[in-house]
Amino acid sequence: MTTISFPLAAGSRSRNRYVAGLRTWRGVTGLVLVGTVALAGLLAPWLTDADPDAQGPQALAAPSGDHPLGTDDIGRDLLSRVLHGILTDLSIILTAVPAGALIGAALALLAGTSRAADLVVQRLFDLVLSFPGLILGLAVTAILGPGRWPVVIIIALAEVPYFGRQLRAGVLVQREREYALAARVGGAGRARVLLRHVLPNAVDPLIVQGAVALSVGVFIEGALSFLGLGVRPPEPTLGSLISGSVAYLDTDPVLAAAPLAVTTALVLGFTLLAEALNRGARS
């Protein structure tokens, strides 16, 4: 019993290092950036009463009391569209990244059952990794068309091999530890050893990968929407707002500045969180 519980204590120490990493300036800055943007999106209905899809008579209007950030090229309130765009982006990445993590983890555990399964899973990961994220997006949207769920599928598929490889590496190390060997000697089956003993001690690196994946998810959504392959209009996303502002960069830079600033804050925040968690894990 003592042998089996020791790695769990080590896992607790590893998680404490992650918490310590979040207390550094990188972790605090990342939490503030992501938290501020997320809170703004969640409070969108209370921060502005303007309908993000309602067209008005004043196109490309300057900032005013009625429209704090002005209006877009067809008279829609820019502040409302940015805030609701945050909500759309967060709903996409917070659905896609956990889905990619679960699929990747399931495949990594499958790879740990036998050499044949490991070979198949590794080749599957290589196949997905051979397609850059945008090329994968073009392939999926060519089949399914643009929309919210195709974007979710694209982000999830792009993240599967990264989560899977991280967990596979942890499983390969942990299954040779004394506690796993003791469990097998005690009569536990391979599946029980993997799920009950190895998995809890191999998942910690996925925390860092999760922060990285959220940052990549924002980028993929933005790139797909910028190319017109993302969420269908008129539903706002940060990428589609940036795309719609390109033609007016000279005459109305605010139209691009607001969604660009929010996107930069999200990506930077998740990147800083990933770096803070990684440094904490190594300390």
UniProtKB/TrEMBL annotation:
Gene3D superfamilies: MetI-like (1.10.3720.10). Its main location: membrane. Belongs to the binding-protein-dependent transport system permease family. It is a multi-pass membrane protein. CDD domains: TM_PBP2. Keywords: Cell membrane, Membrane, Transmembrane, Transmembrane helix, Transport. InterPro entries: BP-dependent_transpt_permease, MetI-like, MetI-like_sf. Residues 86-274 form the ABC transmembrane type-1 domain. SUPFAM superfamilies: MetI-like (SSF161098). GO terms for cellular component: plasma membrane. Pfam families: BPD_transp_1. It is found in: Cell membrane. One of its GO terms (biological process) is transmembrane transport. The chain crosses the membrane at residues 25-47, 90-112, 124-143, 254-274. This is Peptide ABC transporter permease.
